[in-house]
Design goal:
Layout lengths: L2 H8 L3 H9 L7 E2 L5 E2 L2 H15 L4 H11 L2 H42 L6 H7 L7
Antiparallel strand pairs: 1-2
Helix pairs in contact: 4-5
Length: 134
């Protein structure tokens, strides 16, 4: 199938499909006599695997490893678990950071609501060099 059909079936744009082919994320995509990419069922299966892995938060480098490990699933379990646990730790760190940002913005918001002055307490706090966390 041509790139338009592969794009429709996989949900990736044609540009993304070309990029994945260029960086070797996919197995070598076949070419027709005119040199145009000619995707088959195996390519679509790989693209759907990539889509699901991206949805789970894996990077393209992680996905490259997962695709390689997928060919030997009995030997892959420990490595895949390691990648998954590392991704989970990364997400937990991001959640913690976002929670701290939320707390700071909430604190600043309360300053604005409780201050009766004419100046903006949020700008004052952000300008205060004594409280900066650089």
């Amino acid at each position: 199938m041509k790139i338009g059909e592969a794009s429709r079936r996989s949900g990736f744009s044609p540009e993304t499909l070309r990029y994945y082919d260029k960086i070797g994320l996919l197995d070598a995509v076949g070419r027709d006599a005119a040199g145009r990419r000619d995707y088959d069922g195996h390519d679509i299966e790989q693209l759907m695997f990539i889509r699901r892995a991206k949805s789970a938060g894996f990077s393209l480098d992680d996905i490259r490893v997962l695709l390689r490990l997928r060919s030997a699933p009995n030997e892959a379990r420990r490595q895949v678990l390691g990648l998954t646990q590392a991704k989970l730790a990364e997400i937990e760190h991001k959640i913690s950071s976002l929670s701290a940002f939320k707390d700071e913005l909430t604190r600043l918001s309360h300053l604005c609501c409780s201050d009766g002055g004419d100046s903006c307490p949020i700008l004052s706090q952000l300008s205060d060099t004594e409280h900066s966390h650089a």
